[in-house]
Backbone:
C-alpha cells in the first residue's frame, strides 16, 4: 500500500479554460506520433489552455500502458508550453496505484480520474476509491463524473466530501444532473468543467471555469472564444459565436466518439481515419453532414 503523498506548499491549481481531450492517431496498428505532435501544435496555437491525454476520446482503453506513456511524451515534447492532464482509469485499485507511482514522476497539471466502471460501488466505496488515489498522488485530481460510462452516480454529498481533500480540485461534469451541477457551481468547492459539449455554454455562463471538449478539435478558435467571452462577461458576443456549434456537436456524437472527430480531422489531412476495434468509422452519409456543418461554422 502506498503511503499518502505529502506535497510541498504549491499555488492552488487552476483548470480554467478550454482543454482538448486528444484523439490518438493511428498509422495502421501503431500510434502515429508524428500526427499526434502536429495536431497538438495546431491546437496549441488556437487558444486552448491545455490537453487531456489518454481520456476516453483518446481510446485509452485500447492502448497499452506503454503506448499511453509514449503518447503523453509526444504531446509534452510537441507543446512544452502547455500543461497536460493524464487520464487514469481502471477497476483494480492496486493496479491503478501502481500506475500512479510512475505518473508521480512526471510533470503534469493533473489527473483525470473516473469511478471504477462496471463495479458500481456504494457512495462510501467511491469516497474511499478517490481518497486512496488522491492520498497517493503528487498531482491534483479532476474527478470525471460520467455515470453512463461507469454505471455509478457520484452523489452531491460524496463530491462535497471529496472536495475537502487538498488534491481533489476540479470536476469534469458529464452527470446530466442539472441540480447537482448548479449546487456545485454555487458552492464553489470544486472548479467545474463542462464535459458534455452541448452544456458548455450553460455551464460556463453559470460559473463553470471551462470545458474538456472533444468537439473542440473542430472549430477550436470558436470554442475557445465562447468560453473566454463568457468568463469575461461578454454574453451577447459569446452567444453569437456559440450559435452554429450545437448542431455540429450533435453530429459529432451521432456515431460513437471519437469516430466523427477522426473522420473530420482526416478530411482536413491531419490524421488517418483509423480507430481500434471495436470502434468503427463514421458512415459516409454522416461524414457529408459533418463537413457541411463544419463549413457553416467556419
Residues:
Amino acid at each position: 500500500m502506498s503511503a499518502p503523498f505529502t506535497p510541498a506548499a504549491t499555488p492552488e491549481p487552476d483548470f480554467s479554460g478550454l482543454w482538448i481531450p486528444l484523439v490518438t492517431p493511428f498509422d495502421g496498428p501503431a500510434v502515429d506520433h508524428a500526427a499526434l505532435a502536429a495536431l497538438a501544435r495546431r491546437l496549441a496555437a488556437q487558444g486552448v489552455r491545455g490537453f487531456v491525454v489518454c481520456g476516453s476520446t483518446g481510446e485509452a482503453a485500447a492502448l497499452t500502458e506503454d503506448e499511453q506513456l509514449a503518447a503523453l511524451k509526444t504531446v509534452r515534447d510537441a507543446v512544452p508550453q502547455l500543461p497536460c492532464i493524464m487520464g487514469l482509469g481502471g477497476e483494480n485499485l492496486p493496479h491503478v496505484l501502481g500506475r500512479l507511482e510512475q505518473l508521480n514522476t512526471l510533470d503534469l497539471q493533473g489527473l483525470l480520474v473516473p469511478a471504477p466502471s462496471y463495479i458500481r460501488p456504494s457512495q462510501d466505496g467511491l469516497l474511499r476509491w478517490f481518497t486512496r488515489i488522491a492520498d497517493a498522488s503528487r498531482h491534483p485530481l479532476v474527478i470525471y463524473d460520467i455515470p453512463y460510462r461507469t454505471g455509478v452516480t457520484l452523489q452531491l454529498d460524496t463530491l462535497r466530501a471529496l472536495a475537502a481533500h487538498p488534491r481533489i480540485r476540479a470536476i469534469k461534469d458529464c452527470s446530466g444532473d442539472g441540480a447537482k451541477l448548479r449546487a456545485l457551481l454555487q458552492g464553489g468547492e470544486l472548479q467545474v468543467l463542462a464535459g458534455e459539449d452541448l452544456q458548455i455554454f450553460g455551464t460556463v455562463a453559470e460559473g463553470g471555469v471551462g470545458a474538456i471538449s472533444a468537439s473542440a478539435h473542430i472549430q477550436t478558435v470558436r470554442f475557445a472564444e465562447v468560453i473566454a467571452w463568457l468568463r469575461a462577461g461578454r454574453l451577447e458576443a459569446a452567444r453569437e459565436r456559440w450559435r452554429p456549434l450545437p448542431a455540429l456537436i450533435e453530429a459529432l456524437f451521432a456515431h460513437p466518439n471519437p469516430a466523427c472527430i477522426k473522420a473530420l480531422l482526416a478530411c482536413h489531412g491531419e490524421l488517418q481515419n483509423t480507430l481500434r476495434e471495436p470502434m468503427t468509422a463514421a458512415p459516409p452519409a454522416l461524414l457529408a453532414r459533418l463537413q457541411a456543418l463544419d463549413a457553416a461554422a467556419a
In short: The chain has one domain: 17-239. The domain at 17-239 is CATH 3.20.20.70 (TIM Barrel). Strands lie at 17-21, 26-27, 30-31, 50-53, 84-87, 110-114, 141-145, 168-173, 191-194, 210-212. Residues 65-78 form the longest helix (14 residues).
